[in-house]
Batch of 2 targets.
Target 1
Amino acid sequence: MDLIQAILLAIVEGLTEYLPVSSTAHMIFTSSYFEIQNDDFVKLFQTAIQFGAILAVVVLYWRKFFDFSRLNFYVKLACAVVPALALGYIFDEKIDAVLGEPIPIAIVLIIGGFVLLFIDRFFKNPTVHQEEDISIKKAITIGFWQCLAMMPGTSRSAASIIGGMQQGLTRQTAAEFSFFLAVPTMLAVTVYAIVLKKYETTGLKGYELLLQNPDNIKLFLLGNVIAFVVSILAIKFFIEIIKKYGFKPWGWYRIVVGSLLLIYFVYVK
């Protein structure tokens, strides 16, 4: 992976991590286009630059994350993240086996697009208008919804936002809780990818891949900085869009992009 490819992957991560369009799918398609998707360092990079996206949420919502008088906020996040951590650990190898297959992911993108076209019709009367009113039970339920994102192309953001709306949250409250929930979820995934996971081709762990040469460390640091900056812009943009237009624009986006990618990988690639 060269510098330009790393920059483009980081931009894609920052743009798509918090949108209901699946950042994993977009990065897989990008790396497949460059024909670097099977490289172990690329696989690590695509996961590890989520750390920059995590910092974006912490910075934007720093009052929430550093108000230690609100213990209930941390308890809700801790409870909500348990399902994804447990199931993710159990099914990690099976997930990896699917990650390299762009055609099924394109199909999931399209299916998810149709879901987003109609999702606003199903949840018209929200009862929870702010994070403080989310119960621990609702938080855990949203955490289970988030597990749907283990299927590449689904979108962690879309799954947890839909779960939030199903639990009576407004669109904005569901989106913001999805951002909050992303922090412990993605932090755990990033730590696992760097510290514990052994990569198939090289047999090295993540930190060993990073330390393999100085260029890997430079790309890792640059990728996180870019993902951080772009994520801040994407989060602000996303909140404004869903407040005005709901999820329909993202539904059409998924259908169009998924269809184009399906055509590309079936008939061109």
Target 2
Amino acid sequence: MIKKLIAGLGGAIALNLLHEIVRKSCKDVPHVSEVGEEALEKMTEGTVLEIKNPDQLYAATLAGDVISNTIYYATTATTHNFASGIIAGVSAIALPQKLGLDPDPVASTNKKKIMTVGYYLFGAIVTKLIYDKISKN
């Protein structure tokens, strides 16, 4: 299980690095982090966990994203890399609206939808590559 978690962490970090690099250097691209920030704001609103500082909100969202994607990839991408990446990407597009969140940061254009799926597919493939490499040793 440790090897799967290490591989999942690698895939989650790769996904987030790709997202951040593209988000900061290109226009009209997915902003997955905005959906996460909105979700975290809604979950913590009016509680002692409420985060009002934008930098802290971003950091908490990023940490939660890495943790959740690590677990997801560790349990799925190590055996079903393409399917798990596609399912995660499609879920990232479809779920925000169903959860009462703004889907526009990831789904307002076909370009954003395709790129969002691509990000998660990339993370899943990286996970599988890492897992295969460390499993041989």
